[in-house]
Amino acid sequence: MVGTNNPTITNPSSRGVHKSGYMQKNFTDAQIAAVYRHMTRSDFHNPDTMLVLFSFGGQVNAVAPHATANAQRGSVFKMCFQTFWADSADDAFYVGWARDIYEDFFASTGGVPVPGESFDGCYINYPDNDVADTRHNRSGVPWHTLYYKDNYARLRQVKRRFDPTNFFRHALSIEPAGG
């Protein structure tokens, strides 16, 4: 990855966490304050931490939300909090830091980027089990809506057709449709 200090390029065994959100508007003052507060914590000194912003919009948004699995077609950019570390003994600290910044950043919508006027859910290529955990996702919006919006029912039909026994699965995988 050119332009980042992503340590997985030189050390593929690095540990890391990613937490994403599709943004339909610029950051609010409260969100900027949250980023500053967590990035400048006196106990946090990790140069392998970043807020990555990906341009979005344009022709990406010209595709209908139901045309592909990715339904986020109204965003102006996608953002991702990332941090990487080497020692498994530090997992709780770094995962905790990522949870704190993310939940603070999306405090107005229950700790996650609920699709609506300002946000448009999460990016599935950064699967985040916390969005399925009510201790971290206090929005009442299910994880699959954050990732797939209204496409989840159709994706469950596809899953039933190609993987009816749910052999290929993980914590946030699409469940096959019943019956």
TrEMBL record:
<dbReference type="InterPro" id="IPR050416">
    <property type="entry name" value="FAD-linked_Oxidoreductase"/>
</dbReference>
<dbReference type="Pfam" id="PF08031">
    <property type="entry name" value="BBE"/>
</dbReference>
<dbReference type="GO" id="GO:0050660">
    <property type="term" value="F:flavin adenine dinucleotide binding"/>
</dbReference>
<dbReference type="InterPro" id="IPR012951">
    <property type="entry name" value="BBE"/>
</dbReference>
<keyword id="KW-0274">FAD</keyword>
<dbReference type="GO" id="GO:0016491">
    <property type="term" value="F:oxidoreductase activity"/>
</dbReference>
<feature type="region of interest" description="Disordered">
    <location>
        <begin position="1"/>
        <end position="20"/>
    </location>
</feature>
<feature type="domain" description="Berberine/berberine-like">
    <location>
        <begin position="122"/>
        <end position="175"/>
    </location>
</feature>
<feature type="compositionally biased region" description="Polar residues">
    <location>
        <begin position="1"/>
        <end position="14"/>
    </location>
</feature>
<protein>
    <recommendedName>
        <fullName>Berberine/berberine-like domain-containing protein</fullName>
    </recommendedName>
</protein>
<keyword id="KW-0560">Oxidoreductase</keyword>
<keyword id="KW-0285">Flavoprotein</keyword>
